[in-house]
Structure formats: structure tokens, C-alpha cells
Design brief:
The structure is a homodimer.
Chain A: E1 3-8, H1 16-31, E2 35-40, H2 46-57, H3 63-70, H4 72-87, E3 92-95, H5 97-100, E4 102-104, E5 113-116, H6 119-126, E6 130-134, E7 137-139, E8 145-147, H7 152-163, E9 168-173, E10 194-196, H8 197-205, H9 213-222, E11 226-230, E12 238-241, E13 257-270, H10 275-285, E14 290-297, E15 302-310, H11 314-328, E16 332-345, H12 355-365, E17 372-376, E18 379-385, H13 389-399
Parallel strand pairs in A: 1-2, 1-9, 2-6, 3-6, 9-11, 10-12
Antiparallel strand pairs in A: 4-5, 7-8, 11-12, 13-15, 13-16, 14-15, 16-18, 17-18
Chain lengths: ~400, ~400
């Protein structure tokens, strides 16, 4: 008898009809003899509807109260799901974050889970009943409601699976698994059967949206297998597991990309110690996340500094940097919002040289100029002009053999 | 410095614009130097929307889970209100029933408040901040969410006012006070400045909808003055207070009525001990509330039994009674769903004889036949044919001098 945590996203519980379908799926698991624990998101669109209400009151709503508001979304779905399960003759019981309890820190809107009490959940499971848990929410030691940020229900599911020592955490979504790249721009994209935690984390941070990165981190740390699958079909999806549980190693597992990038260059910066701090401190104080940073040393004592930020932060970052540039005596500031980041990810890179040069070759072969490069042990990212995004992704997918069956 | 509990109903917080208006009103109270505690209902229509969701899952949804669902309505309004107050520079903090805590029994959907902890509320008030409390909800000692039933936010407000020993509990609604009768059918209806708890309870139970009866009972027991007023104007509304705080005593204070009545008569019942139990036990077991009961003894050992139930229960009650009638050997069962109950209420009746006969005279003077009569110390109710409702109400309102200024 396995213990399975099943997490269903917003599109899987979009309305009462969908909720009934999910109830059938949960019960199918019970009928197979497994214990099932359900974690739910809010109905799709509901969180946005609530944010819109809050923004009618204030463009920057109070964080504590926003969490009180947003946490109602999951409260609605768990109660309806428990009703649907009970209607079918199964014992079920909804649990809010505060009822379990799921204790978090006090960082409203992006809280981190500190501890999950399991006593009530275990009692419910032992009785043969189905706990239905509100994802995305927790409670501070002082009793304030918190939320975990976008995609936080994934994190709740993995944390609950860890706390209960579950056999697997199934993440149900509206796609049938994790793909080698985005099928919308690369028709030969294939569903990945098994992928390692490390690769999945890189994929998620580089643009693949199917899993929230913190949940993968959590699953990796506690070695909980994830199974990403569709709530609309019965076919198996993609497993995210430990590296040594993957038989067939490929050089490259996926080609994630992101068009949500912009580049800023400060030219001819006097190269003194502490100059990077002068540039990046005010950016960080404005809560702008900097992704890649490259520094080229010119002849003499001048240097060029180039970095990328997200599209949304581009204009604010440009303003800040222009202010700093005149202070530190840099010659000019140039910006380019029309870039993209294409990456290749694969644990196979660790043991193979020449992967990077093959990537550069492929891009050059299609006349794509590389503007910036960033590497880690298991990924290589290139910044290119945005208009080449689709071409680059398809070329890399083909070139590294991912298009073959 | 007074402590005022202000309760706002669903129409007063119907959308974000209304919530902003209420925030201004709350702040006006603070600026006068008073401490204000806010209790809110869900946005008008929201509770019905949630019930509709539940009924899409099950026509009789699980009571525990229904309360989890319904309690989200108030959670939304309190968070938005706290945001609106904070935006205006005032300290504010939303409180769920579970955060205060408002402890109730376990009767889901109609829970009774057992205890209200005041520590956190008092701390918030002492800091000069405004507690914004979710009405209608509580929590059991086991941590399950409960709701108090329709109009339960009134009860929350009065219970909070009691627990905090507030100077007054203001009930804001979409009408400007309590009226001598329904202005929609009697244009000369007048707003009542002061009314006693006892009269208000009779008015509420006899058809006046402005206050939930349990909240009046609660206010009476703990002698908390209620002030029923409009959230859309600044004028004073109606005070509900102790009898001895009302200077000018009138014979009759109000003329409530209800058209939600139906009558059932069992004729020629053999008059044996225990016969009433035989009739009313199965009705009570079906959760049907019987209002008036009249028994006429005929010559010999036969009796007639007449009683009233609500329209909604009429058909089911008729079926039950027909079954019982044949068992006990009654001659026939007759039903009349086209009746109404008109009443007069006033503590002045205690010290005046002749009020009942004056009522009967007035009705007879307009050719209205009285089908049943029921009296208590401070009210007289008559069942009449429904088509005479408006005529009877206007005649009684005029006849007892309520139409005069």
C-alpha cells in the first residue's frame, strides 16, 4: 500500500465539473489500495480575481491582508473537493494551512515552510479518510496567514509528501509532462520520461514553467520522486528523480529558453575595487534581480560591465544605472530589451567536453550571433537577439539529437 | 472615549467602492476620538454564490465543508477593509473567527457562540489600531470552522460588543432604522427612535427582517444598546435598548406581518390523552417548525386541531398529517396555504386592557375575518386570509395611532 500525494493545479479544479473529475481520479487511487493525500490550488483565474479586488483598494496592498485575501482561493476548492469525495461515499476532510499546521516564516507573499505537523493528517489517513489540503498557504507562529508565492501549491505538495514520507508526489497539470523544449515553437519536442532533480531545477530557472523551482529543490533535498502528469488523461507523465535512477543518460536533456530578458551595458567604467558594488547595490535595493553579469577588461584601467534583468525591471534598472554611471565616471550606458536566452541542460555535460563548442557551432551555423554566455556544471546559456529565438531552439534541439525518437 | 462596535452588512460592502466608503465612516468615528471595532458580512450575493457552488457538487453538501466554504466570504471583506483603512494611514488588522478566537459549539451552519477571547482584540485597540472582524464565523474547540446561520454577523457583532464591554453596537444596513411596519405596504410607516429589546425580539420573530433575533436576545441579556442605522446616510437610526430607557411609552410600537404562513386543520379527532403528541411528533421529526396551535373541543369526545407552518413546509406537513389522521381516526384534514399573520407588538399592552378587543374591532370594521388568534404578554397575532394583508396592516397602523407624528 503506497502513500501518494496528489497535487492538482488551477486548471484541474477550474469549476465544479472539473472538481468532480478530480474526485473520480482520487478515488481510483484509493480503489487501487493506495492512501491518497490531495493538495489543491485555487480555481484557475481566482487568484487573479482576488488580486484585482485588492488592487482596486490599493496598487500595493498591505502584504499581511493580501495573504488573508488570497488564501480564500484554496479554501474554496478544498471544501468543494471534500464534499465531492464524501458524496461518493469516501471519508474526506479539508485542511487549511492553519489547521494542519503548516508553519512558515513571516515573509508574506513569499513565505517559506518551516515545519509541517503531521499528527492530524496521519490520524485522518489511518482512518482510511482522504485529507484535502489547501496548497499555497501557511501560518506564522503568531497565527498570521501567509502565502508561498506563485506556484506555491507545488511546494506545499512536496513539503507534505516529505513530512508524510510519501512514496511519490504527483503533480497534476494541464500538460502531460515535461518536454525537451516548448512544443509550441519546436514540433519535434518530446515528453521526457525521467529527468534528474538538478536538470529540472535548471530547466525551471531557465524558463520551463511546468514546475515551481522551490518545489524541485525541496523534492531533491528529501529525495521525494515527483511525477508530473496530466489530470485530463491516464497516461504516465514525467518522473523527476535522483540522477542515479535514470538509466539512459543523454548528453542534453532539454532546451529551455526565455524571452523575458533585457540587457544593459555600462561602457568604459574606471576599473577600481568596489566598482561592481557601486553599480549593483542600488539595483538590488530596488528589488531587481540581476541574472547574468559579464565584465570585460579593456586595455588600460577601463572595463565594460554587461548584465541582464527581466523585461519588467528593464526601464527602472536603466534609470538607476544611468544615475550611477555619471557618478562613477563611466562613458556611456546602452540597453537592449530585444534579446532572448536559449540554454541547453543535461547532467551528461559533466563527463563530456566539447558540448559548449558544439552549441556555439550550431548557433553560428545558422548565422546567430552570441551576445553573452553563462555556464554551470550542467547547463550552458547564450544570450542572442530575440528574433532568432525559435530558430535557435529548433537548431539546438535537432543538433543535440533530441528530435530523434 | 467610547468603544463602538460597528457591523456592516453585505450591501454596505457590496464592492470595493462601498468598502472605501465604509472605511471613511470608520475613520470618522476614530477622528471623533472613539475606539472603533469593525465586524463585516460577506459582499452581498457572495454567500449565495458559494452555496450555489456547493449545490453543484451536492444538493445537501457536507455541513463541515460547507462552513469551510462559506466562511471565505467574510475573509475577503475583512482583508479588503483592513487594506482600505491602512491606505488611509490608520492601523488596522483583520481577524478571522479562528484568530480571535470566537469559540462555538459544533452545530455547523447554526453554531452558537460559547466564548470570545479578547486578549488580541484589546491589544490591537490599545495600540490605537482598528480590529476588523469576520462576522458569521467561529471555530470549535477541535479547530473546525463553523458558521452561525443567516444574519449571524449581527450575532457576532453583539457578542464582540459584549465581550469588549462596548458602549454601543451599531448595526449598519441599507435601511435607515426599524419601522413601525413595512413602508412598502404602509406609506405612513414611521422610523422608531427607541424600541425595547423585548419588542424588537417579537418584531423580528413576527416578520420584521432588519435584525437577526438571536443578536437581539444576546444584546438584551448583556444590556448592550443596539443602534440600527444606514451606512448610506449620516442620520441617526433606531436604538434598541432596555425598556426603562424609553421615555415615551406607546401602547403599540409596531405592526409586523408575515405572508409566509400556511394552516392545517384536523377535524373530529377522538379526544384522548397523548393525541397531540401523535400528531406533532412526526412533524417535529421532519424538522418542521409549528407556529400557532389551537385546539377546539367539540361536544362529546371529539376535538379539532388547527396549526400553522411555514409555506415551505406546507406540502410535506400535509402529507405527514394525512398519514397520522387515518391512524388516529380523525374525520378529515383541511389545508389553507393562502393565509397571513398580522400582529401588534408593544410593551404598553402589559398595563392596558382592551388592546386585543380593539384589534379585533379594527379588523372586523374592515370586514376581515380572524381565523386564529395567538397572544403573549406584549403581542397579539391574528391569522387572516392573505388577500387582506395590506388592508389589515394599514388599518391597525392607523387604528393604534402609529400613523400620527
Amino acid at each position: 500500500m503506497a502513500l501518494i500525494v496528489q497535487k492538482y493545479g488551477g486548471t484541474s479544479v477550474a469549476d465544479c465539473r472539473h472538481i468532480e473529475n478530480v474526485a473520480e481520479r482520487v478515488i481510483a487511487g484509493k480503489r487501487q489500495g493506495d492512501n491518497v493525500v490531495v493538495v489543491l490550488s485555487a480555481m484557475s483565474g481566482e487568484t487573479n480575481r482576488l488580486i484585482d479586488l485588492a488592487e482596486q483598494i490599493h496598487t500595493r496592498p498591505d502584504p499581511r491582508e493580501l495573504d488573508v485575501l488570497l488564501s480564500t482561493g484554496e479554501q474554496v476548492t478544498i471544501s468543494l473537493m471534500a464534499m465531492a469525495l464524501k458524496k461518493r461515499g469516501f471519508g474526506a476532510r479539508s485542511f487549511l494551512g492553519s489547521q494542519i499546521t503548516i508553519e512558515t516564516d513571516t515573509a508574506h507573499g513569499k513565505a517559506r515552510i518551516m515545519n509541517i505537523a503531521t499528527e492530524e493528517l496521519k490520524k485522518t489517513i489511518t482512518r482510511g479518510h482522504i485529507p484535502v489540503i489547501a496548497g499555497f498557504q501557511g501560518i506564522t507562529p503568531e497565527g498570521d496567514i501567509t502565502t508561498l508565492g506563485r506556484g506555491g501549491s507545488d511546494t506545499t505538495a512536496v513539503a507534505v509528501a516529505t513530512a508524510l514520507d510519501a512514496d511519490v508526489c504527483e503533480i497534476y497539470t494541464d500538460v502531460d509532462g515535461i518536454y525537451t523544449t516548448d512544443p509550441n515553437i519546436c514540433p519535434s519536442a518530446r515528453k521526457i520520461d525521467r529527468i534528474s532533480y538538478e536538470e529540472m531545477m535548471e530547466m525551471a530557472s531557465l524558463g520551463a514553467k511546468v514546475l515551481e523551482i522551490r518545489s524541485v529543490e525541496y523534492a531533491m533535498r528529501y529525495e521525494i520522486p515527483l511525477h508530473v502528469r496530466s489530470s485530463f488523461t491516464d497516461s504516465l507523465g514525467s518522473y523527476v528523480v535522483k540522477e542515479d535512477e535514470i538509466m539512459e543518460q543523454t548528453l542534453v536533456s532539454g532546451v529551455p529558453y526565455s524571452t523575458n530578458e533585457a540587457r544593459i551595458t555600462i561602457s568604459k567604467v574606471p576599473d577600481r575595487p568596489g566598482i561592481a558594488t557601486k553599480i549593483f547595490s542600488p539595483i538590488s535595493e530596488a528589488n531587481i534581480v540581476v541574472d547574468m553579469i559579464i565584465q570585460n577588461t579593456r586595455a588600460s584601467d577601463l572595463t565594460d560591465m554587461t548584465f541582464t534583468v527581466s523585461q519588467a525591471d528593464y526601464e527602472q534598472a536603466m534609470e538607476i544605472v544611468k544615475g550611477v554611471a555619471s557618478e562613477i565616471g563611466a562613458e556611456r550606458v546602452a540597453g537592449d530589451p530585444d534579446i532572448a536566452k536559449v540554454s541547453i541542460v543535461g547532467v551528461g555535460m559533466r563527463n563530456h567536453s566539447g558540448v559548449a563548442s558544439k552549441m556555439f557551432d550550431i548557433l553560428a551555423g545558422h548565422g546567430i550571433n552570441i551576445l553573452m554566455i553563462s555556464t554551470s556544471e550542467i547547463k550552458i546559456s547564450c544570450i542572442i537577439q530575440r528574433k532568432y529565438t525559435e530558430l535557435a531552439v529548433r537548431a539546438l534541439h535537432e543538433g543535440f539529437g533530441l528530435s530523434d525518437q
